[in-house]
Amino acid sequence: MVESEPKFYIPESFQVNYDVTSQFRMIWNVMKAPLIVPFLNACVYISLAMALMLFMERVYMGIVIVLIKLFWKKPEQRYNYEPLQDDEELGGSNFPVVLVQIPMFNEREVYKVSIGAACGLSWPTDRLVIQVLDDSTDPVVKQMVEMECQRWASKGINITYQIRENRVGYKAGALKEGLKRSYVKHCEYVVIFDADFSPPPDFLRRGIPFLVGNPELALVQGRWRFVNANECLLTRMQEMSLDYHFTVEQEVGSATHAFFGFNGTAGIWRIAAINEAGGWKDRTTVEDMDLAVRASLRGWKFLYLGDLQANSELPSTLRAFRFQQHRWSCGPANLFRKMAMDIIRNKKVKFWKKVYVIYSFFLVRKIVAHMVTFFFYCLVIPLTILVPEVYVPIWGAVYIPSIITILNSVGTPRSIHLLFYWILFENVMSLHRTKATLIGLLEYGRANEWVVTEKLGDSVNNNKLKSDAAAKKGNVKVQKKTRSKFMERLNLLELGFAVFLFFCGCYDYVHGKHNYFIYLFLQTLTFTIVGFGYVGTIV
């Protein structure tokens, strides 16, 4: 008698899943060699080229800034500089008439900051005109701002409260409208302060003499300082990035080519230069950079003063920071699209200055810097883990980014212990910035979106103290966040990339040879934190 062989029954659902997996693996193996490997190799070569461009730019600026600090003369020695002196006989007639413009939009928390600081500037009262350009849509805020202007006017300050029927052109439209007033024709210079900026009283006395003694200068730009840099980890990260921008990028541009991007505030302009350049334009979300490039193409020069400083506020919520970064990334790319040929065809600017503006200022800093950070370190390198046939040289994956990071840290030495987390955070934000850059280059979707950066002033600390005190007394119950509030915090794109990086990290841990999984798991954690919107709450 022949024994029958045992029969095993495989569940039908398992067979279906097994068939799908097998088919997917077969398709992957068929496509990998002729398509995926060559494509990923091309991505690696392009990414390495962009990384080298950024690396050379950072090294160049590092060398130049060292030379500036060691051998360069101070601005007072390089330019004609004669401090303006008070004269009892002449009164204020030897001082030029200066216009102060303060654009604002629903600035409930900080409107008193800039208005009070502007009214406190050490400048003859009869030679100072202050415009508060209020585009607020909240009638309560408009009334509060107007009353603040009236309060200062009653003290003898020449301050005017100006509103518009609409917000056409946003900030650029408000500034342009302000310059149309008949009394502005008596003003030689205009200084602009955003609503959260608080310049010191001697801001004009230190900056204006450079413009008076050097008729080729159109702009004197001051440096930003941040009153809330220690508020949370998010503000510390921003301080590191912006300090490098001011300490290195602005200083190098000013010293080598007398050109840099106007920062939109804490800068003094020669009104004649604004008019010659074509005035304020609202074709992009970076009206300040637009004006600076156009003025530079007219032959005007700029001066950056690192010791001329004004206090300001950093966005302390992730939502506000993301909107700001979208505008700052999308706008320059869109402006580059609009002005590249104008720069190339211009005959008033020297060839090497054109190269600097097109290659260094726009291409490397405003486009390549965002894209290589995201594509190479957050996309291409993780994908090469899944395709081991593609080789990434260690100098591109480790050495170059390490040197770039060290060079970036020179602006804020007090935060050097946060350098590693700053790298992870910048990698996350590079996703958002790359998306905004592509929107600007292609000019679609949110290319012209303008969202005013939320400012909280002292209300954050005051409200926190009040809530803490009330909680101690047992009078206040902690309000639970609603589901809608939680959903508003979610950033699904970042969470999706967190899943992708976690998968690549697990694959590398099991099958990989490069030990990238440590970096990938840390990057996954940072993407997750930002994805759930909690980075602004970490102190």
UniProtKB/TrEMBL annotation:
BP term (GO), one: cell wall organization
Major subcellular location class: Golgi
Root EC class: transferase
Keywords assigned: Cell wall biogenesis/degradation, Glycosyltransferase, Golgi apparatus, Membrane, Transferase, Transmembrane, Transmembrane helix
GO cellular component, one term: Golgi membrane
EC number annotated for this UniProt entry: 2.4.1.32
Membrane topology of the entry: Multi-pass membrane protein
Protein name as annotated: glucomannan 4-beta-mannosyltransferase
